[in-house]
Design brief:
Largest sheet: none
Order of helices and strands: HHHHHHH
Shape: flat
Oligomer: single chain
Number of helices: 7
Number of strands: 0
Helix content: over 70%
Radius of gyration: 19 Å
Number of domains: 2
Distance between the termini: 60 Å
Length: 173
């Protein structure tokens, strides 16, 4: 293995590991603080809808990001196709979440879940914009930038959530 490739591999593993540790660490700290600030029922409601968003998020990715990373002769057309497909999938999955929200709320006998799911579903559209760019950073072996972007976005989102919860902006009934 050439020395430069070996060095890039070691740096990539280090940055990816740091990204995973930071993601888990920040997520844990933010979760603990939010669990303290929100009522148990509010926290539970958000956990219920998180499952639906996680499943929908898996469909949105559809492994296009991994395909772009592994494709030896990736073109701009490939990136554009994956980008627009992910946005389309995000809109479709958000629509599915929008449609099933009343049934989920009825199943759990929590009417507020319908509104929460619909708002959370909008995040699927927003996250669909990031898949191709993340794949391009991985393909370029720029794991440091990925780690900085992931950590920054998680910290900003966590701070906003904590400030909102601290000021009493939990789930509104």
């Amino acid at each position: 293995m050439p020395e430069s490739l070996k060095k890039k591999t070691v740096k990539g593993v280090a940055w990816t590991s740091l990204d995973q540790v930071a993601t888990l660490g920040f997520g844990f700290v933010i979760g603990v603080i939010l669990a303290r600030l929100l009522s148990p029922s509010d926290y539970g409601l958000l956990a219920m809808i998180g499952v639906f968003n996680a499943i929908a998020g898996g469909f949105i990715n559809s492994s296009f990001g991994n395909a772009l990373i592994r494709k030896p002769d990736m073109t701009e057309n490939d990136s554009s196709t994956a980008f627009y497909f992910n946005i389309f999938a995000g809109v479709v999955m958000s629509g599915v979440i929008w449609l099933i929200a009343p049934w989920v709320a009825q199943f759990y006998d929590k009417p507020i879940l319908s509104q929460l799911m619909r708002v959370e579903g909008l995040l699927l559209i927003i996250s669909s914009f990031t898949i191709v760019q993340s794949a391009q950073l991985s393909r370029a072996l720029n794991f440091r930038a990925k780690m900085i972007i992931n950590s920054t976005s998680q910290v900003v989102a966590g701070v906003v959530a904590i400030v909102a919860a601290y000021h009493g902006l939990g789930v509104c009934y």
